[in-house]
Amino acid sequence: MRYALSILTLFTAIAAGAAEPQAPRDPFPADFVVSPCAPSQSCTSFSRSQMSTAAFSFLALKLDPNWVEAHGDEMERALAPACRRHATCLANPANSFNFCNDVLSAETADDCDDLFPKSRSATDHEQCSAFHEIYILGIDQQTKPTWTAAQACAAKNPIAHAKALDIWMVPATVTFGSKKEVEFYSLDPDTRVPVLANITIGDQIIYAPANPTGKMATFYPFKLPFKFDRVPNAEGHTSLVPPMVTVRAEGYPPTQFRLAATVPEMKVEMRPAPSALRRGKNVVTIHAHDAATGQPVEARVMIGDRPAGRTNAPMTLDVKRGKLPEIWVTSLFNKYSDVVVAKAQ
Known about the structure:
The protein is of the alpha+beta class and about 350 residues long. The protein contains six helices and 18 strands. The chain folds into three domains: about 30-155, no CATH class; about 165-260, Sandwich (Immunoglobulin-like), CATH 2.60.40; about 265-340.
């Protein structure tokens, strides 16, 4: 079972400066509402007599038919709760059968660790895993007609959802340049059933290889090499903010929020200090470093609206008529907000 943190709750906590982690939440809660259009049996797979042959033919797995006979009922009983959730998933008009099958597979992926721990019997654990893989593959191959009937039933009484989706993300926050995968989740706010929703992040094109369509969508992990947005700030320059995320699913109002991302901060100091400058030419150095890592930051030094040099290197500053022009720093690689070093006098 995979878990996630509430995006909207988390973003509010980050903005307020809260540091305590939020409790994980189940992407398919036990208190979900059973759909009246849910099929009575959605987990139709290969027959017991076909399991061993199918496992070898499709997945090159060795599944002992005697093990299937001995433990088949136990395996299906363990899968039954997830199959009941799977049936209701198929009846949501926003969901594809591939999505519901992928949710089922992920929900039950760790079942063998509980049923047949490796520490007790490596052979039973291996056979259980092979059973699980071929059982899910059989469902994949036979779900479409069941899904089609459930969707036709749901279409007879369409629901206009007034509430937005309940949305989550793992990990809690992302950092600039991170190569780790993220996952978004969404639930129907009333039925607590997972919903397949498409995700866009600004105008950026980001692929999700785990999704059959290749597009970013809830439940499917993808890497997030996002770019920050620049917005005007009170000093007349620009600040970086996380990009806007839009989540859309059929029948639900779209949801928008800023990505829960940490924005790098650049600390800047001029030496000698502005108060120590004299009329005429002064040799100064604008020191810049990352607030979190302490590493030097290469940025462009601006005097008014013209480039004057680079950070962390000496430069000549001409103070005419004893008045100091505005000195500010802008990131060369769009990683930091603009920083005013000295205001114009």
